[in-house]
Amino acid sequence: MAKDAPGMRGQRSRNESGQLRDTRNDKYVGTLEEQYGRDFGVRSDMHVGTLLEQRGMESVKQLIESNIGRKGRGGKR
After folding, report:
1. What's the pLDDT at 72?
2. What is the DSSP string of 9-66?
3. Predicted confidence band of residue 75 (pLDDT cuts 50, 70, 90)
4. Does residue 75 fall inside a structural domain?
């Protein structure tokens, strides 16, 4: 696997066009909460796809960029 651009952590999985792969919808919410230091206010064993559907979002990027679950900002729900 090729090394990523400077500033990117570790080695990432890429699709055939070279774009970074999207997060799978069957990944657990608890994994994202740990990675990003967030608390989305749902069970940690919920699938990310289910949370995105409930929140009306299309991607993990939208979820992470939102205020949902940010600690200390009152954006828990």
Report:
1. 67
2. -S---B-TTSPBPPPPTTSBHHHHHHHHTB--SS-TTSBHHHHHHHHT-S-HHHHHHS
3. very low
4. no
